[in-house]
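The authors assume throughout that readers already know how a fold can be written as discrete tokens. Each protein is reduced to its one-letter sequence and a matching series of backbone shape codes. I therefore recommend that a typical entry be quoted early in the introduction. For illustration, here is how one protein appears when written out as sequence plus structure tokens:
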Amino acid sequence: MKAMVLRQHGTIDDLELVADFPDPKVIEGHVVIRTRATSFNYHDVFTVRGMPGIKVPFPMIIGLDLAGEILEVGPGVNAQWKPGDRVLVNPLNRVKGLMGEMMHGGLAEKCLVAEHQLIRMPDGVTFEEAASLPVAYGTAHRMIITHNTIKAGDKVLVLGASGGVGSGCVLLAKMLGAEVIACASSDDKIQRLKDLGADHVINYKTTDFSKWAVEKYGKPQRRTYDGGVDVVINFTGGDTWAPTLRCVKRGGKILVCGATAGYDPKEDLRYIWSFELQVIGSNSFYDENLKALMDLIVEKRMKPVIDEVLPLEKAGDGLKLIENREVFGKVVVTP
């Protein structure tokens, strides 16, 4: 089968398109699927570069998120699963770890998947839409919906709003009736966020988002609940953390599901207690998040934002777009 293979850590140029990689062989408790779509996440960039404490078994086919059709069913698999079934794959294998990191992932024509990772795709959801969901939209759904962190009328500021998780947060927050302030790094992304439904947009390269929020809504007060925004979604960390603390209202929330710009930012605990801030962490996603998201697509209440759909041969170009943060939403590959 054709596959995009990583043989050593390095740069995206180290990914190798292989025309005759061995087909996966079905084993007990597993199925082989024909991969119809896979999508990139920044985690794939980290896998290529190498991450401290994570030993990737080479050669590795990267790609966490994937959807496809069952080709072959192994012994011991529940009779509900049959060849031809359309499935979304939860990338977390309970025994081996993440797809595309500890076991072969989506950048190949076929893939071996454990039964417990299978989620049936409803009619009305495309393979490209399904493959866009797990890491990005699943994470956003758990952080916002499962943890019940946003309500109608809330003023919600989203950092990194143009990426996969960020665009998912914008869509879900708007669906809940929030007033959304979306932050991105270019005027083109800003315009696309407006088109997506954001109420306000900020180019954080030219505008201090924290000062903007204070000028717009007032300075947060310690004795009243006046001023500031209700929620900041910050999976950036780094030098955005301290400004985040300064623009959240008394009793407001900071939602955290990552730290793409640095996990050890400068901290100022005075804001936490003085304004009774709630810092709420959210980790990963579960099957119920992915099922709920597909239901939202069927109900036409949400549509994943897909920037590019590329063939396997151009997968490296797509991952470079992710690495350079030149995408709006998701990059999907159709092997």
